[in-house]
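Notes to self after the call with IL:
- keep both proteins in one doc
- input above output, always
- annotate only the second one for now

Protein 1:
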Amino acid sequence: MSVSDWQDFILQTDGRIAELRGGIPGVAKGFHEVARSAIKAGALDAKTKELMALAIGIAARCDGCLAYHSKAAAKYGATREEVMETIGVAVYMGGGPSLIYGAEALSAFDAFAREGEE
């Protein structure tokens, strides 16, 4: 996908999540707090945590995870090499399906990293 495809995917998903959030506001608020707390820098920095989330998203074959965590990894300054190693760990843990989703994750990261350079 190109950056516009990944951006469009996120925009569409954001719209769907907004509708869901309206129907389950307590759950959505709780999830937001869990996400914010989980990514907050501590013993591990936010970039490392986003790379971990990306690896899990690859292994779980979650398209939304690829988009959101690739974008966040780029935002926090992850390098392409760090994303490649993250994909390697995901493939180790998830086998062949993770290899396919790893390629998709790299496409998403490249798109968002290029966007940040513009």
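Protein 2 (the one to annotate):
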Amino acid sequence: MRTQEVFKAISDPTRRKVLKLLQGGSKSAGELAEAFDITKGSLSHHFNVLKAADLVRCERRGQQIVYSLNTTVFEDVAAVLLDLFKVEKGNGERS
């Protein structure tokens, strides 16, 4: 997992909104673009950052590019965060 790329990707509100929209299932680039008031070039940049972090997958279906969440990366990130914020026990052990 590319931890730095993941945190960079989720640091931006536009990219978080893309991820939130994809929670409901796969969507084409056009369907996602309807939810934003930004240029297609800007949105393409956000898609590329999400792809570089491996948070989304894309598939060409005819003339359309369809995006979906890569849930395995989210599971890996959750494990990293849980490990990072584990509470230490009194004798140095982690709980």
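Annotation: The domain at 3-84 is CATH 1.10.10.10 (Arc Repressor Mutant, subunit A). The chain has one domain: 3-84.
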